[in-house]
Amino acid sequence: MNPVKLASLTTGQHGGGGLLVLCVLVPVAALLAIVLAGGRHGRAVTLAALPPGLLVAGLIATQVWKTGQAMVERVGGWAPPLGLMLRADGLSVLMLATTAILVAAVAFYAPRSFRVAAGGAETRASLVFWVMLMAIWASMNLVFVSSDLFNLYVALELIAFAAIPMVYLEGKKGTLLAGLRYLLYALMGSVLYLLGAALLYGRHGTMDITLLSGMAGMDWAVCLGVGLMTAGLMAKTALFPLHLWLPPAHAGATPAASALLSALVVKGSFFLVLRIWFDLLPPLTGTPGAQLVGALGAAAVLVGGVMAIRQDRLKLLIAYSTVAQIGYLFLIFPLAKGPAVATALSGGMFLAISHAFAKASMFMTAGLIAGAYGHDRIAGLRGVMRSMPVAGCAFLIAAFSLIGVPPTGGFAAKWRLISAAVESSQWGWAAVILCGGLLAGAYMFRAVSVFLTEAETPVADKPAGTRFREWLVLALACVSLWIGLFPEIPARLIEIGRPANGEVLP
Amino acid sequence: MSDVVLHGGLILLILSLAVMTVVTRDTFAAITAFVVYGMLLGLAWVALGSIDVALTEAALGSGITGALLLRAAVCLRDKEAAAEVRRPGRAAHRVSGLVCAAIAAGLAAMVLMLPDPAPSLAPAVMESLPATQVKNPVTGVLLAFRAWDTFLETVVLVLALVAVWGMTPDALWGGRPGELRQHAHDGPLVFLARVLPPVGVMLGIYLFWIGADEPGGKFQGGTILAAMWMLTLLAGLTDAPPVSRRWLRAAMVAGPATFLLAGLSGVVFASGLFAYPPGFAKPVILLIEAASTVSIGVTLCLLAIGPPSRPANR
Amino acid sequence: MNTTEWFGIAAALLIGLGLYGILTQPMLLRKIVSFNVLGSGVFLMFGVIARRGAAAGLTGDPVPHAFVITGIVVAFSASALAVTMALKLHEDTGESAFPEGEDATAPDNPDEDKA
Predict the structure, then answer these.
(1) pLDDT at A48
(2) Nearest partner of C91 among A275, B72, A331, judged by Cα
(3) Residue A294 has pLDDT above 90, yes or no
(4) Are residues B75 and B10 in the same domain?
(5) Which residues does chain B have within 8 Å of residue A167's beta carbon, measured at their own beta carbons?
(6) Are residues B25 and B162 in the same domain?
(7) Is-contact A111 A50, C-beta < 8 A?
């Protein structure tokens, strides 16, 4: 679709653009086309959908950036509480852009086994992979732009149906069990979320977040509802102690899928927690409930870090690192107190996006290394730096970002989180962040130190197409570095569309 | 007074069947209890004043879900003893019981504390319903006010089916789902499968057609169609198609694709995406419902019978 | 006497029961059935909320009714996926419950798989 056509679509919409609907429709149209045309054409349809999808995300970003205001759109012209509203503020734009870039990267990284030679018959993996890739894109975008609690429930279910097949896609031993465990956690999570949303509807008669934020006081129905929703979303985000499903599911999936699951999918439910705690009920952050959530986050940082150190397999190490990094994200709820609200939120968003790029890069790098070595046992990965220098560099940069070494995005994030701890005089959380950094340093050192040693026998030959992918993962790692070098752009975006202190959303 | 007795009795029956469903050791008995439980829940929905939901619950929540669970129970017959080893200990049972009782008590207290008068969108729905030209308010909500939800839900069905197919052994990709049934010439199942489908298909189409104005609609109609197809498959009168057949794929995506195109056409003919042209809302809604009924019927049936399990050529 | 509240209390009890089944039943299929009980309790809660909001000549607020219809279809899709996965797991490994103590283990390596 060309820009002129898009512009004409934009005009005539109520209060914004058709862009917010389109950012979901483009990948949905692509996935329907793949089901119809067959997995043979999966890659071609996906590559055709990437330019319009990236364009829509880009147009939303430019418009929000230029106007400095959130973009609002009523689907079908029906105003809430009866109708559905979509809303993109700066947070949405950051996540939309991150998602679009990562989906594009995964599409180019996807191994040949998911492609079908011209004239060949459809294979199972080719259909499932490309359909689910587009489905993850659509459902993540929906989470980022929807402003209706029930619509978000549908989005959560879409994410689950898209993510779980990615786990058992390769049909390896054990992946089905991991996928089933994931499914049960996800189902429990969404049913608790729905119950919480039901209570809010029973109390206030609307599912619209903006309207609810205007009327919701702190009464028992609201507290119980928000508590149930948060608990459900924690199970989906794999926050300690509900993290047991994550390591086997993420480590067992095909590398392209692991990257999406770890970098993006868990962020969808986290983003929703953030919406609920910061937008639905602004006074909730900094309360005893938030301290409890923060304590779980702190436990995740420490337990995830220790478990990562103890792993013998590279992909499991990276998966446990995700458990720890999710922990940091939940620290922002106790930290967002008094004057530190903006700093904590900004720290959380920096962590979410820099972790997304670093972790996607790292999982895909691990996939390349495992492809070349034939296994991913850390002790046997000697000489990676010499035999695959580009991939090795990517791994190193991503590791620096996950540890929080300046000037990476991870450092920018942790710097903000520690500042928030200082501003709100909560030193304990700062100590947790520093400890987590040390643990991350330890587990990353374990892997990198092996990579640096000389191999007794050089790696025979890398699978075809590895060179291009090595540069791809390096580019992704560099994005996490770029976030730390130029933090002004995300920092300004995060502030767009935020309510000023205590003020109700427009 | 009669309400008190009727509703009280219904609730007690529902609760006792739910207890049976959850705690009975025998899987088959538990699932049978669940099917009856679903039927009674349909009655509860009638008591709560929603025929639309009652139809959906009875047909889908109890009927097709029951067929799915029974199929699984047959495959997993006599596995209870093996699983019993993994049953959590007595202490874990007690703790779980206490936690669940506390949650139930908290929710029950919450129900009694809901505000009075209750907030409601019923007046808002009735005020805007004339613009949609349909008379069934639930259809108005599903197809106009919250069409975006409904559209995405039809996509959920497609994804669920692709996910189920994703478990096919690679060698059988493109094969036929479900077991091959020998076509028997008589017997009660074959008799039912010959007699019921014409009636059922008419009923399904009728439910979709009246759905605009009376209780019913694409989910209810589609579910009946799925049940009829399943019946003929079980009786061996028809065979499931290979999953890579183009017509099958077209039937799967017809609903969401029509919905998507109708939504896009709103830009040209109405005020924007997913808006309906003034004066022509009802024809557009009926078109979407018709395509969705087909997709829902095909998808629900295929979801219930599982992934391909045998090659395409018989 | 208002029987709507009774249905609300029944919904709360169904939710508790379903949760209990998910936590204590070892068999995967039974966890899935219990999940359906839990789900129907949540839907019934919506039904009570809808009934309480009866107004404008309707027997209930149609918006929660629409939520429930959407919810039932989603719950069925989820059950179908879960049942298929449980059956496939049983077919591949003979397991009908989650094995114990394997929470932290990951699936095998591709190379080990071939061996």
Answers:
(1) 95
(2) B72
(3) yes
(4) yes
(5) none
(6) no
(7) no
Paired with B308 in beta bridges are B177
Decide: B28 and C27 in contact? Cβ < 8 Å: no
Query: Which residue ranges in chain B fall short of pLDDT 50?
Result: none
Amino acid at position B266, single letter: G
Q: Residue A6 in contact with residue A55, Cβ under 8 Å?
A: yes
Put simply, whether B166 touches C (Cβ < 8 Å) is no
Mean pLDDT, all residues of chain A = 88
Please tell me whether residues B83 and B189 are part of one structural domain.
no
Domain residues for the domain of B131 are 121-314
Distance CA B14, CA B42 (A): 10
CB contact B214 to C (< 8 Å): no
What value does the mean pLDDT take over residues A423-446? 92
Tokens, residue A51: 């330019």
> Do B153 and B296 fall within a single domain?
yes
* Distance of alpha carbon C87 from alpha carbon B103, whole angstroms: 31
Question: Given an 8 Å threshold on Cβ–Cβ distance, is A374 in contact with C71?
Answer: no
Same domain (yes/no): B83, B125: no
A297-342 pLDDT, tens digit each: 999 999 999 999 999 999 999 999 999 999 999 999 999 888 888 8
The vertex-A494 CA angle with A488 and A496, nearest 5°, equals 110
Question: Is B249 close to A36, i.e. CB distance below 8 A?
Answer: yes
Chains A & C: contacts with CB separation below 8 Å: 113
Look at chain B and report how many structural domains it folds into: 2
User: Cβ contact (<8 Å) for B114 and A203?
Assistant: yes
In the predicted model, is pLDDT for residue A501 greater than 50? no
Q: Which domains does chain C have, with CATH numbers?
A: 3-97 (1.10.287.3510)
Compute the half-sphere exposure of residue A412: CA atoms within 13 Å on the CB side of its CA. Answer: 24
Q: Using CA atoms, how far apart are residues A22 and A369, in angstroms rounded to an integer? A: 37
